[in-house]
Amino acid sequence: MSKTNKSFIHVPKPTLERLKRYYTYFLQLEAEYISSEELAEKFNIKPEQVRKDFTYVNITGKPKVGYHVPSLIKELGLLFGKEVLENIIIIGAGNLGSALAKYSGFEKLGVKVVAIFDNDPKKIGSFVGELAVLPLSAIERVVKRFKVKIGVICVPEESAQEAANLLVGVGIKAIWNFAPVPIDVPETVIVENQDISSGILTIKHILDKK
Ligand SMILES: NC(=O)c1ccc[n+]([C@@H]2O[C@H](COP(=O)([O-])OP(=O)(O)OC[C@H]3O[C@@H](n4cnc5c(N)ncnc54)[C@H](O)[C@@H]3O)[C@@H](O)[C@H]2O)c1
């Protein structure tokens, strides 16, 4: 059975994190081939680690040449479900929600923001890029119309659970939560907490040790 069949592979989290970083790097890379040594140097890891990571995708490198970058992009694209375009919605049209809605890099990753919602009457009807900010009452209709499975929470922490409940109530399958608080959802719903502060704390920790 192909290792790229998403239903049958379990990639350990640290490997998955590295594969994601390689993938976004390859999307911008112009070279046709890349060796494990070059990639290892770029990401400050060992070449053996790179080779081990690639055992999770259906690709092998050529001796003295390296890995074929377009094939890596294709295989990693399959791993991350890039072949299927997922429509996503954002709740919260503030600083972060607006920035995400305008981010042009999502489509390369197989993701399209189809709507942004807010509960502030002053924001409803205003535009974020090409999207009009919609009232929360329109969520159900949008989710059905665009077959949306992924919702993004960009509301203040005190409203995060309310936003999560709303998303779960309209049948959202996965939540990307930017609010710095845990949300309580049924086990069947996937939650990815994007804690931006953890990145800066890691940097500060490393700086402190240097
Ligand atoms: N701005 C950042 O760089 C950043 C970084 C990391 C995390 N975050 C987190 O992301 C979230 C949003 O941050 P921000 O800076 O965009 O805040 P913001 O105040 O600029 O925007 C929040 C938006 O959510 C709306 N809102 C509030 N309650 C709502 C509800 N129940 N339903 C729908 N909309 C609602 C508000 O009207 C507002 O437009 C926060 O939880 C914040 O901690 C922000």
UniProtKB/TrEMBL annotation:
NCBIfam families: PRK05472.2-3 (NF003994), PRK05472.2-4 (NF003995), PRK05472.2-5 (NF003996). Modulates transcription in response to changes in cellular NADH/NAD(+) redox state. HAMAP family: Rex (MF_01131). Belongs to the transcriptional regulatory Rex family. The gene is rex. SUPFAM superfamilies: NAD(P)-binding Rossmann-fold domains, Winged helix' DNA-binding domain. This is Redox-sensing transcriptional repressor Rex. The lineage of its organism: Bacteria, Thermotogati, Thermotogota, Thermotogae, Thermotogales. Keywords: Cytoplasm, DNA-binding, NAD, Repressor, Transcription, Transcription regulation. Residues 81-182 form the CoA-binding domain. NAD(+) binds at residues 92-97. It is found in: Cytoplasm. Homodimer. InterPro entries: CoA-bd, NAD(P)-bd_dom_sf, Rex_DNA-bd_C_dom, Tscrpt_rep_Rex, WH-like_DNA-bd_sf, WH_DNA-bd_sf.
